[in-house]
Amino acid sequence: MAKATSAQEVIAQARATLATARLGLEDMRSRDATRRNAGLQNVVIFGRIVTWKLQNLRSIDEAHFDDWYEPLKVEMGADALLVYFRDLRTEIEKQMQPAPQPAGLYIKQLGPNEMAELQAHAPPHTTSIFLGDPQGRSGYEVTMPDGTVEKVYFRIPERIGHIIFDMPNRPSSHLGRSIADASMEMLCKLYLDYMEKLIDGAERHFAELVPDQREPLEGRRQ
Predict the structure, then answer these.
(1) pLDDT tier for residue 158 given thresholds of 50, 70 and 90
(2) In 3D, which of 127, 130, 192 has the Cα closest to residue 161?
(3) Helix, strand or coil for residue 138?
(4) Using CA atoms, how far apart are residues 167 and 184, in angstroms rounded to an integer?
């Protein structure tokens, strides 16, 4: 990618990098362990690259950049979540970081309506439903014609819950608040959401250097 020569180009490159990181977050929801691990690495690597892209703003206007970025650098250096991902990037580069492993299931909401939804999709002769086995899987126990019991797995709907993938030394706070759901998927989401706020903040701070590309109101179609 060519070196950006304007604040607008720097910010566009940072947003494109963040989009790649968010694709990694999608991969973390896969049942395939290889894809989950690759997804985590993409979140960590490309999330960190977002900050490096934004630092190119210094070459556009050093004083303007330092006025905006210095307080944020202090904030990032003191935040447990952001330090965790910074260090995780270093471990991945050294090929020392283990792959995330399923550690259970985080239930967001499970009432009569959710149970009725799961039961509505149950195969014939289902005897029970299980949520979150040792591998984090959910499914139906189905009695076969010969009397044996087989497990039929399904992906639990996102609004009901999601698999928790375990990694060592996960942070428990971010921006002064406790993290209720410390699954790797949620930690990655919080990390990328912070990166997005960082980009939005840069765009606002450099607004006078970033041309407004929106069509004038009088020129829009009604």
Answers:
(1) confident
(2) 130
(3) strand
(4) 7
